[in-house]
Backbone:
């Protein structure tokens, strides 16, 4: 009788794993048993040789800029855009909870790369209106939210310094996580003024623990942008220099994984020209030049980079960079695979990915936690301060002289004239600078609220008066005019492609009031300013002027010529936004005839573009 060749499967008892063993029905029992033992022995041997592994996930956000809720305080409505993005830490909290559920909370770390406490009316309110620095003052909403979500460490951003060091230190006290800044050092001792790093140990059953070090780096531009607060107190060495100092120390302390949280973009460029020797957007340089880094959470640039692979020049190893979109619109995940080799954990692979906040709903725990603070700010920004006779908008302000920007320059002129009254410079003509910060700002006809005016001036800049010559102002205007793309006479004009030449942002294009001039966009950059006049006569290069500028520009932001080195005649700590609200409140009626003037226009070979 022929043997039955039907196959059967047996399960190995080794580690509970399923092992398929082929046998033959009707074969001698001893042979089958020997076969099974042999398979078990092979399985045990393979298990013994298989290296121990550990999976770790590092989550990251950056440039939150005070966004807790998916709410646009300037429009008094939920935030929305054409791409379907949503914002806010309440959404990030839901994403973080999901990741912790998927990966196991004990196998995750949550970081941020800076710019936390400035950027919305919510953060302004708790810095200036109901300040956290007051005796018995409130806990900052960002501290409350980030504590509740369970951040492990946060790098300092440049905007952390906008309200002064006292406010930053109070915020630091309120956080249950460290604010990291290896290259924010005491100006006298050159020792770190904030914790340089954070280290966390992850327990692995039956194996050595995994040690993860996070190095925090911030932006050298703070020395320029917030000079008034930091000069003589803090200095900010370069990111590459400080990473090269600290990474070897972290490795010598037993770090198996080194992550850098850097408030610095990846482009290798700077917006402050040659005023500092250190690169502003240096994250990729750090990856390329400093050995021993596994991943970098990138911030500052407000761009979305899911995964950027940079090869270290000395080791040949790949460093993984990722920058989640700002305002809590994205969450970066670095997924690490580690392998135990000769008693030490080694990073075998790193993969970066992004999760989108628009895929989840708000975490009710966060919205409930900060409902009262949110309601106070909504009430504050909806206060009526005046009445507008007509609608004013920034829609065309990039390429035509818009009255809404003239409002800014008029307020600045008036404030500076009043400040200089009775001084030796009181008789000098005052010019003023302003930028079209927003492309969507609108002050509607009728009641004007604080939120309407705040949407016009979204930054917490303050006012400075600088002494400039006519020749310096001319050079300033030429530099500003580089913002426009050269467009030949007769060529079609697409306003969407007319500006931002060389990637220059809108906030680095300036109007200058008090003069009359043309910008000839048919001509090459550097020779575009035509028919520049003051008081109806050609500008005298030797004439002296007072230029009213914001502190960002006065300190060198945007690398405009002459202004940073010009003599400072006066400055103040009150925000320009507040000065605008005071001006409108005092007037009661916002009428363009009180502030609007046509100072400049775009031309091509003398013919107006518009």
Residues:
């Amino acid at each position: 009788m022929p043997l039955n060749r039907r196959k059967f499967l047996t399960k190995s008892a080794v580690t509970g794993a399923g092992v398929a063993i082929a046998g033959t029905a009707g074969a001698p029992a001893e042979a089958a048993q020997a076969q099974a033992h042999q398979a078990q022995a092979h399985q045990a041997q393979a298990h013994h040789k298989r290296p121990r592994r550990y999976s770790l996930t590092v989550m990251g956000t950056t440039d939150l800029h005070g966004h807790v809720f998916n709410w646009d305080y300037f429009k008094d409505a939920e935030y929305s855009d054409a791409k379907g993005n949503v914002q806010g830490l309440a959404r990030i909290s839901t994403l973080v909870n999901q990741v912790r559920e998927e990966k196991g909370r004990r196998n995750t770390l949550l970081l941020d790369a800076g710019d936390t406490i400035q950027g919305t009316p919510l953060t302004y309110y708790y810095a200036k209106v109901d300040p956290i620095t007051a005796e018995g003052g409130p806990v900052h909403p960002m501290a409350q939210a980030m504590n509740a979500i369970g951040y492990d460490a946060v790098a300092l951003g440049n905007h952390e310094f906008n309200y002064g060091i006292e406010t930053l230190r109070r915020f630091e006290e309120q956080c249950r996580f460290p604010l990291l800044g290896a290259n924010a050092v005491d100006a006298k001792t050159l020792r770190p003024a904030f914790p340089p790093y954070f280290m966390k140990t992850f327990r692995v059953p039956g194996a050595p623990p995994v040690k993860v070090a996070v190095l925090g780096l911030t932006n050298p531009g703070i020395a320029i942008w917030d000079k008034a607060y930091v000069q003589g107190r803090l200095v900010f060495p370069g990111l590459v220099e400080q990473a090269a100092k600290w990474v070897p120390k972290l490795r010598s302390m037993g770090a198996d994984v080194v992550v850098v949280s850097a408030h610095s973009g990846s482009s290798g460029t700077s917006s402050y020209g040659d005023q500092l020797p250190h690169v502003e957007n240096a994250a990729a340089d750090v990856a390329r030049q400093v050995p021993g880094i596994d991943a970098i959470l990138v911030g500052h640039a407000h761009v979305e980079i899911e995964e950027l692979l940079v090869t270290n020049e000395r080791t040949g190893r790949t460093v993984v960079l990722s920058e989640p979109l700002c305002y809590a619109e994205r969450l970066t995940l670095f997924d690490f695979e580690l392998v135990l080799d000769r008693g030490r954990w080694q990073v075998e692979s790193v993969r970066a990915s992004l999760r989108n906040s628009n895929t989840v709903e708000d975490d009710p725990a966060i919205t409930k936690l900060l409902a009262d603070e949110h309601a106070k700010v909504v009430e504050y920004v909806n206060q009526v301060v005046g009445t507008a006779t007509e609608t004013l908008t920034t829609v065309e302000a990039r390429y035509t002289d818009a009255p809404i920007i003239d409002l800014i320059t008029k307020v600045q002129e008036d404030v500076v004239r009043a400040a200089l009254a009775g001084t030796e410079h009181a008789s000098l003509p005052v010019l003023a600078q302003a930028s079209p910060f927003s492309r969507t700002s609108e002050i509607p006809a009728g009641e004007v609220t604080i939120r309407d005016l705040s949407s016009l001036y979204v930054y917490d800049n303050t006012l400075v008066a600088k002494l400039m010559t006519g020749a310096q102002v001319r050079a300033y205007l030429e530099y500003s005019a580089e913002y426009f793309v050269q467009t030949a006479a007769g060529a079609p004009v697409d306003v969407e492609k007319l500006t931002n030449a060389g990637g220059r942002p809108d906030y680095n294009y300036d109007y200058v009031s008090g003069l009359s001039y043309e910008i000839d966009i048919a001509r090459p950059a550097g020779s575009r300013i035509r028919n520049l006049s003051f008081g109806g006569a050609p500008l005298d290069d030797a004439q002296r002027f007072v230029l009213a500028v914001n502190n960002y520009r006065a300190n060198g932001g945007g690398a405009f010529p002459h202004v940073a080195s010009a003599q400072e005649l006066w400055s103040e700590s009150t925000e320009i936004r507040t000065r605008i609200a005071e001006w409108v409140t005092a007037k009661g009626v916002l009428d363009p005839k009180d502030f609007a003037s046509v100072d400049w226009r775009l031309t091509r070979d003398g013919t107006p573009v518009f």
Notes: The mean pLDDT is 91.
